[in-house]
Amino acid sequence: MTRERIPARFESLDSRFEGIGGDRELRVLFDDGRWLEGPAYSPQGRFLLFSDIPNDRVLRYDELSGSVDTWASPAGFTNGRTVDREGRFVQCEHGGRRVVRFGHDGSPAVIADAWDGKRLNSPNDVVAHSDGSLWFTDPHYGIRNDYEGHRGEEEIGSRNVYRWREDDGLAVASDALDGPNGLAFSPDETLLYVSDSERKSIARFSVDGGRLGGQTTFATADVVYDGLRVDTEGRVWAAAEDGVHIYHPDGALLGRLPMPHVVSNLEFGGPQRNMLYLTATSRLYVMRVTVQGVDKLSSRPRG
């Protein structure tokens, strides 16, 4: 299948960026969206789910056939998603103001839709921990107007990062950010990175069981950060208005992948976890890179 390709060129800003690269072209896999988000890859099925939020649909890219079809429509104005340690999809729905996990048989189960008796704002993105917990951000973007959800009121009074676990229920992990958005754990899960779109920064927290501490500002720039991923070397890959920013674990900006469209999110997929998928405004892109994403199924939930 012939698809459009655009040039791809990584910009090195630090000598430690040496060895990071990939294809010299980005393949356009899909170009008929309105605002694409939430890419998550299924290693077992070898497919990628991603959201077209304003069009209220979830799309599925099949890695083997190269086809894109509709997985769900309507879809609750779904935004971000992840795959948990058992290979189940978990997604954030603006429309229902909730987080939903899908069983292996496709049946949905609501993980969270309220805190302290009040509706969540509009869950944005979610990540899974190897202890079986799910962590998600809850800014207000899906209730500001009717573009990505339904206009509504903020009932809780804060825009939080939450942790949910079957045995523990839902708890506020942090209420210190103005616009918590994308999030990702370090490979050893001792750190949690959270983008704050309102402050144009990325926060870093230490993780101690179910609690966050030691908040610091990991990165700032004159762009809005969105989705985050971490590679096996602990480098943070951040989706941004001007492309993808790649950071060393010490916070230094190592390099960038400039893009012609605003990048909302990214995901590592493929059998070797070295296919970089990007949702960028109306398009889904892919390129093969020289790094690997963390294997989400490598460790099973522990007690």
Summarize the structure.
Helix content is 0%, strand content 49%. The protein is mainly beta. The strands form seven sheets. A five-stranded antiparallel sheet has the order 1-3-28-27-26, with no helix packed on it. A five-stranded antiparallel sheet has the order 2-25-24-23-22, with no helix packed on it.
Number of helices: 0
Residue-averaged pLDDT: 95
Dominant shape: globular
- The number of strands is 28
The biggest beta sheet is recorded as:
5 strands, antiparallel
Helix content range of the residues, please?
under 10%
- The poorly predicted ranges are none
**β content, as a range?**
over 45%
Question: According to CATH, what is the class?
Answer: Mainly Beta
Q: What do we call the CATH homologous superfamily? A: TolB, C-terminal domain
- Rg over CA atoms, rounded to whole Å, is 18 Å
Strand order of the largest sheet: 1-3-28-27-26
Overall tally of domains: 1
CATH topology: Neuraminidase
Please render the helix and strand layout as text:
Blueprint: E1 5-7, E2 11-12, E3 25-30, E4 36-42, E5 47-52, E6 57-62, E7 68-72, E8 78-83, E9 89-93, E10 98-102, E11 108-112, E12 114-115, E13 118-119, E14 126-128, E15 134-137, E16 161-165, E17 169-174, E18 180-185, E19 191-196, E20 201-208, E21 211-220, E22 225-230, E23 236-240, E24 243-247, E25 253-258, E26 263-269, E27 275-280, E28 283-288
Antiparallel strand pairs: 1-3, 2-25, 3-28, 4-5, 5-6, 6-7, 8-9, 9-10, 10-11, 12-13, 14-15, 15-16, 16-17, 18-19, 19-20, 20-21, 22-23, 23-24, 24-25, 26-27, 27-28
Architecture overview:
This protein is an all-beta fold and 303 residues long. It is built from no helices and 28 strands. It has strands at 5-7, 11-12, 25-30, 36-42, 47-52, 57-62, 68-72, 78-83, 89-93, 98-102, 108-112, 114-115, 118-119, 126-128, 134-137, 161-165, 169-174, 180-185, 191-196, 201-208, 211-220, 225-230, 236-240, 243-247, 253-258, 263-269, 275-280, 283-288. The strands form seven sheets. Strands 1-3-28-27-26 form a five-stranded antiparallel sheet, with no helix packed on it. Strand 26 (263-269) and strand 27 form a beta hairpin. The protein is globular, with a radius of gyration of 18 Å. The model has no long low-confidence stretch (mean pLDDT 95).
